[in-house]
From TrEMBL:
Protein name from the UniProt record: Delta-aminolevulinic acid dehydratase
Residues reported in the UniProt entry to bind 5-aminolevulinate 1: R203, R215
Family from the record: Belongs to the ALAD family.
Binding residues annotated for Zn(2+), in chain numbering: C118, C120, C128
GO cellular component: cytosol
Amino acid sequence: MINRPRRLRANPLIRGMVRETRVSADSLIYPIFFEEGTDIKAEISAMEGQYRYSPDRAKEVIDQCLQHGVNKVLLFGIPKEKDEKGSQAYAENGVVQQAVRAIKEEYGDQIYVITDVCMCEYTSHGHCGILCGHDVDNDETLKYLAATAVSHAAAGADMVAPSDMMDGRIAAIRAGLDENSFKNVPIMSYAVKYASKFYGPFREAAGSAPSFGDRKTYQMDFHNIKEGIKEAIIDEEEGADILMVKPALSYLDVIRELSYETNLPIATYSVSGEYAMIKNAGKAGLVDEYGIMCETAVSMYRAGADIIMTYYAMEIADAIKRGDIG
Ligand code: PBG
């Protein structure tokens, strides 16, 4: 026998030497929900182990992240009042703006703060933009998105991440940031975002399910991959700095394909439904939660992702430290 692949699997040292995928906590981003109010830390029932915090309790969760070696976070906001035009999304004292300021005052450059730019958590109808009848008005929405991104940058956000899927939003946000002296604030585009049932637990957490219809006129049809590459290339041309594929697990082929098509860093978001499935299957004793978490995280990197957003960020960082993956 000439070929004996098992020679290179004989022990941990040689397996470590020939390992093809290296992972690092530097590339992990932890999503956090901030709810308007004070003294809140409320567990999200659909996402055991995840909480909604009020901005005054940001320190608890940020300290926890830093202890685990995770120093990038992605912030979402849940306002007290929602209205037709989502005005709390771009309010100077909106909940995300408050949270960013609180974190930046306390930690400065110790933590990298990214904000989700969207309207669905802020609109009374739960859609990701301004309505015209029952349709989301693409071009009208752009100025609100740009204003939201600018208000996040003004509060001190290091990076903005638009997740709305309107056409032309990267160009609109880039122009807004540049005009307001934020030309060095990068944009991580949720470029390839599918209309997905995997967002279910998030919508419960953020109270952002659309009150009528669905998001299929702006988020992508999950049958399509070429369309995803098209979306990503458009966003790159409009000035995106990082491209995201979302969700992660059912879209590893899209991550791989995109890695051939772009020289930008690729991020992927392992979303709430992915977390909830692993968590609950583990709790039910059906699978080994820790092992599945490790294996799925590595699969995202192996597919070609450079950056991963995940509710398991701290546990994955620990797994890397322990040498279980990495
Ligand atoms: C907002 C947004 C959503 C998610 C991230 N940003 C929900 C949606 O599009 O309905 C989902 C994240 C998750 O499921 O963890 N547009």
